[in-house]
């Protein structure tokens, strides 16, 4: 069971290909494109100054790639992007079938994407960023298998066989936390306790007392980052247990992938939204959610949660953006 409701991949709006002149230039030395794959992009022309919205045109329609390919249109001079970093960028997404623009961030909010193919929905986009320098403009061609997959993306006009062409302007990158970091806080007495094994996986132990009737939010570690704001995307590691039985019903720690989802906008259980908004990034927070702050009277049968169950969460706030 996941706390966050599923979101359409297209809502992430995070593909990218960058050309600051034309893509028929030879790939730069740090391009990850194979010669055959990058050759398929030679008919793609990108015009416009880096940092401004580019114009993309195709000499051949459709333009298809069988492997993801990256062409560095304009090299940047910033730090090299490492796997796992969170990258901010502007982009234009073009359909290789007909050259039509499908989406763009220019004139809107910059996109943010994790440069890790094992975590990203658009694996080709993640791969294309790794090893590139901040400030670069890139052209990235992504085959369907590394883009929207066999289902395509009807919202953006992509059929199952359409190649994604991205032009990206790489703005910044940062490394998210892997665990809570800050100052330890002594919790109030009578609350559940949390211990950690050698791998950092938490175990929640619930006291043999009646559960609180109201939401409890207790810092265990106070982070030093900015406060989480409603409407941001939260990156967090968490574990949840049922007060009555002590049974763990979910753990992102055990899955090895953090929660990534909007916070404070009603897409998480109410107590989670209330307890996390306002907390500094880097904090570890223990929360006790009575039924009304959790899954309500209907509970969550798939997870073994009844409508009368109080829930306990421990959450490491890794990032908010």
Describe what this molecule looks like in 3D.
The protein has 321 residues and is mainly beta. Helices cover 7% and strands 32% of the residues. The strands form 4 sheets. Strands 9, 12, 13, 14, 15, 16 and 17 form a 7-stranded antiparallel β-sheet that branches. Strands 3, 4, 5, 6, 7 and 8 form a 6-stranded antiparallel β-sheet that branches. The longest helix is centred in the middle third of the chain and has 7 residues, at 123-129. It is elongated.
Radius of gyration: 22 Å
How many domains would you count in the coordinates? Answer: 2
Helix residue percentage: under 10%
Number of strands: 17
Low-confidence stretches: 1-36
Q: What's the helix-strand series? A: HEEEEEEHEEEEEEEEHEHEE
Q: Give the CATH topology of the largest domain.
A: Chitinase A, domain 3
Structural class: mainly beta
- Could you give the distance between the termini? 24 Å
Quickly give the CATH architecture of the largest domain: Roll
Provide the residue-averaged pLDDT: 87
The shape, in one word, is elongated
Q: How much of the polypeptide forms β-strand, as a percent range?
A: 25-35%
Helix run count: 4
The description of the largest β-sheet is:
7 strands, antiparallel
Task: Give the C-level CATH assignment of the largest domain.
Answer: Alpha Beta
Short structural summary:
The protein has 321 residues and is mostly beta strands.
């Amino acid at each position: 069971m996941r706390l966050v409701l599923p979101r359409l991949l297209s809502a992430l709006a995070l593909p990218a290909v960058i050309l600051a002149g034309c893509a028929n230039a030879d790939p730069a030395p740090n391009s990850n494109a194979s010669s055959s794959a990058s050759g398929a992009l030679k008919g793609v022309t990108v015009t416009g100054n880096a940092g401004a919205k580019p114009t993309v045109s195709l000499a051949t329609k459709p333009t298809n790639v069988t492997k993801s390919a990256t062409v560095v249109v304009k090299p940047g001079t910033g730090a090299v992007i490492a796997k796992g970093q969170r990258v901010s960028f502007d982009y234009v997404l073009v359909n290789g079938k007909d050259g039509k623009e499908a989406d763009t961030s220019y004139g809107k909010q910059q996109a943010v994407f994790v440069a890790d193919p094992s975590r990203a929905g658009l694996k080709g986009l993640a791969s294309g960023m790794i090893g590139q320098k901040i400030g670069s403009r890139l052209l990235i061609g992504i085959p369907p298998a590394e883009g929207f997959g066999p289902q395509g993306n009807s919202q953006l006009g992509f059929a199952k066989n359409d190649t994604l062409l991205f032009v990206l302007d790489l703005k910044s990158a940062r490394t998210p936390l892997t665990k809570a970091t800050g100052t330890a806080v002594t919790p109030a007495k009578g609350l559940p306790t949390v211990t950690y094994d050698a791998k950092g996986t938490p175990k929640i132990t619930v006291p043999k007392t009646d559960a609180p009737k109201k939401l409890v939010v207790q810092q265990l570690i106070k982070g030093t980052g900015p406060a989480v704001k409603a409407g941001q995307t939260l990156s967090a590691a968490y574990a949840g247990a049922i007060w009555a039985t002590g049974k763990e019903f979910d753990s992102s720690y055990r899955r090895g992938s953090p929660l990534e989802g909007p916070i404070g906008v009603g897409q998480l259980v109410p107590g989670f939204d209330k307890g996390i908004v306002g907390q500094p990034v880097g904090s570890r927070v223990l929360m006790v959610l009575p039924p009304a702050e959790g899954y309500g009277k209907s509970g969550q049968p798939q997870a073994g949660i009844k409508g009368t169950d109080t829930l306990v969460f421990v959450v490491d706030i890794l990032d908010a953006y």
